[in-house]
Give the backbone structure.
Amino acid sequence: MLTAGSVLVLSLIPLIFYGRFYFQDDTENGAYGVWYHLGESLFQGKVPVLNPAVWSSGNYIAEGQWGTWNPLVMLFGVLAYISPNTVVLTTVLKVIMLVVAGMGTFVLARSYSLSPEWAFVAGIAVPLNGFTMYFDAPSWVTGALVWAIFPFFWAELRQLMVGKRNPFWAFVTGYLIVTVGYVAGTVAIGFILLAVGVETLIRKAWRPAIRIAVTGVSMGLVAVVVFLPGVLTAAVTTRGTTGISNDDYMSIDFNSLLMAPIATAYPQLLSWWWPGTGATSPAAYIAWFLPAIAFVSWSRFKKLTPELRDLFFFLAAAVAFVLLPTTIGPLRYPARFMPYVATGAVLLVIVALARARRPHIGRPSLFFALGLVVLGSYLGWAQVPSRYFTILVAAVLVAGALTALWWLLNHPEAQSHRWNKFGLSALSLIAIGVMLATTATTLLQHRTSAKSGLSIANQPADVSTYKGVLKGVQNDVLVVGDALDYPQEKATWEQTLMANAWYLSDASVMNRYQLVGFSKFNELLCLRYLGGTCPELAERLFHRRAETGLMLVDEMHIDNVQILKESFNRPQVAMASNNYVSRKEGLEIPPVPAGWHVAAETDGTVLWSRDIPLGPAGGLSWSQPGTRLTEVSRDDTKIVLKVDEVPAGGGRAALSRLPWPGYTVDGAALMERPVGGYLLGLEIPSDAQGKLITVSFEPPGWRIGIPVWAVAVAGMLGWSFVAMRRSRRDPSGKPETVHEGTK
């Protein structure tokens, strides 16, 4: 309870300096919209699988992080849908995640035979690591969620290893991690399963080894249903690469790891969020007390190593992952694994301090620890010289705290001193001292780095603001331009929205956030991952297309086009992250096309709408001359057509849907080449007149994935029930020895 309460207080410190700290970048642009739409769908009695109307962003199963199989994410969705304030709900959920991470670390530390005081120190330190606080917690919430649950999974595996736990809890915690769909969490599960599994084999504990192996197999089977659709869809997406390369983007180097004790040091970290090689936040910070590893007796530590083999293996694997090339097929940004490095590093130092420190810690050990502080400070200054003062202040603070810790560890009788009026033990004094020093470093860190270095769109907190944008507009909308060209402020978001914020609007807008995108479609529309498009698209939409003879806007069944005026008024720069064409001047907004009219206009936007609407995307878009079809029924994943007329040689037709892998057709055949390069095409046989054609979508791999998911869940539940029935209390069982670390 003290650990949870302390982490709660520490996690509120960022809000002192920036009230929207936990609502930045991908949380406001991506995750909250996902939650909201998921909650909306659940209230409608369905789970979102495919949405033809949002095109490149609509293959939810392939994107993998929609929580399709995860009850926790579904709960977040329900809460988001009924919450009137996006910032408040997000802040509450993320603070809870940090508290859960602290409690899990406490439980995990106790499994290494630590006293509550030392486990408390680990529990308050791990949630404050720099990557979690400045990347995952403000932005990449799926990363924060899986990492927060991970210590419980590790602790459960250790309990399985010693035969003290029903496998149910390891399965539940592992299941909640894998089904979030965040690859780093699943990789971490693989690492720790291997680490603990190897440890059981070394101990020749055959029954625990079988339990852990079965748990690992069940996690693998669950992962199939989560990740296989994305793998089988990757070939047509922007994540379709299979190569290995290194551009240093989002990669932590070894020098940066040496800055880990300095809470204000910015490591070398290339990214598109900031210019230059230095990060704009302390992304490599782990914990100020890491240099206290110098207080350890290596002869004692060597005797302790048989108990820590799983920790050694996991930490080594985590560090190796962080130092990987930046692109390995669809896997990107190895720096995302830094929170797992922090978990392993803090545990290693705390276990070593508690159970293997020197009986008397001499001054050379203190000087060595202070030398590590000086080294980390020097490297931090060398990376970003302008931060010399904040780095110096942090170094002095750490040096003072380490010196105090050195003094307390050398004086376990400190409880007899006059200033200890409450009769606290030396370990309690150490825990209190670490808490005070951690509070001080956290205050300093957020005083000097109040915001994440990631993007801040300042999306509205009030859900009613989203509801008012394009209110009353019927059928599908395409936004031409990029909301990033506007000031990121309330006045902008009252006229237009960006990325997944559109899910909170009642309008059906195509321009959503893309975890994966359909490559050919994105190229055609010069579509960016946050939904922005090039202004040239305004003319391209109304050009006749060679294959169909229709205009692009007709092929897509777009009934409304919102023009973002500011995107036309400024130069345009082509980058790797867009499909734009560079130009130095602004661009004229084209006149309203024939058959369209201006439906609404604001200072920054103008809305064109069709005089005669076509209706939403997903249905019949085009048919070859001589081929006539009638739509019988339609939903997101299925459409039924009646063939009214077909030429003697057969006919062709196209649907306003992307040809994602997973479509099947009965009564016709799918065209090998998409119509117009991006539309789902049908080959209709000459004898099909009067018959029905049924086009259905099922995520690829589900016919394998769902049965193996059912086997994993049912098998683990059955095994857990049998284990519970067979379990008997062992009258000779004794609790594990707790090492107080005071001898």
In short: The mean pLDDT is 91.
